[in-house]
Amino acid sequence: MKVSSLAALLGLAALTAATNLLPRNFDANDYYVLHLDAQTHPAEIARSLGLFHEGPLGELADHHVFVARKAEDDIVRKEKRELAERRRRKRDLGERHVLDGVLFSQKQKLRKPWEKRTLPTRFGPARRTSRGQPDAQAVQKQAHVATTLQILDPIFKEQWHLFNPVQVGHDVNVTDVWLSGVTGKNATVAIVDDGLDMYSDDLKDNYYAQGSYDFNDKTNEPKPRLAEDRHGTRCAGEVSAVKNNVCGVGVAYDSKIAGLRILSKLISDADEAVAMNYDFQHNQIYSCSWGPPDDGKSMDAPGILIRRAMLNAVQNGRGGLGSIYVFASGNGAPVEDNCNFDGYTNSIYSITVGAVDREGKHPFYSEKCSAGLVVTYSSGSGDSIHTTDVGQNNCAVNHGGTSAAAPLAAGIFALVLQVRPDLSWRDMQYLAMDTAVPINPENKEDWQATTIGKKYSHTFGYGKIDSWGIVEAAKTWKNVKPQAWYFSPWIHVNKPIPEGDKGVAVTFTVTEDMLKEANLERLEHVTVTMNIQHTRRGDLSVDLISPNKVVSHLSVTRSPDNVEAGYVDWTFMSVVHWGESGVGDWTIVVKDTIKNKHTGTFTDWHLKLWGEARDASKARLLPMPTEEDDDDHAAIPTTTAQAITTTIAPNPATTKTSSVAIPTDIPDRPVKPKPTQTSDTAQPSPTQDEQAAQTSPSTWLPSFLPTLGVSASTRAWIYGAAALIIVFCSGLGIYLWMARRKRLRNNARENYEFELLDEEEAEGLASGEKVGAAGNKARRTRGGELYDAFAGGSDDEDDFDAGAYHDRADDVSPRMSEKQARGASDSDGEEEEHHVIGDDDSDDDNDRRPLQR
Ligand SMILES: *[C@@H]1O[C@H](CO)[C@@H](O)[C@H](O)[C@H]1NC(C)=O
Ligand SMILES: *[C@@H]1O[C@H](CO)[C@@H](O)[C@H](O)[C@H]1NC(C)=O
Question: Which of 73, 348, 373, 404 is the most exposed place for a label (fewest CB within 10 A)?
Answer without folding.
Answer: 73
